[in-house]
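pinned: reference chain
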Amino acid sequence: MQHRDHDAFLTGIQTKIRIRLRFFSKEDQGELTRMCAPMDFGPSRRAKNQDDRYHSWDYESDTERHTLSLLPEQIISIELTDELFDPAEFVTWSTSTSQWFVPRDWGAYS
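pinned: its structure tokens
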């Protein structure tokens, strides 16, 4: 299952444009809006539930910057902004050992 704004998410990945992500937070029991970098769409490598989800880097987390992995039904909207992101801001692992689900040209971070 994909969210209705799936294409905007993919465009953000391809063009390295930040997104404004509105979603229902299970932890906060309410709606949140965060400025994020779209990272990938696919199953979680950590969760027991392997359904596809939207993985984003959250620049505005109230604890620390971190990855949000949201199921499509948690997302209210995905909106492209006019701000670019640099994958070097959050890719700290070897991309040679970790494959993205969505193909992209991020140079050394692809």
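why pinned: The radius of gyration is 13 Å. Residues 96 and 110 are 9 Å apart (CA to CA).
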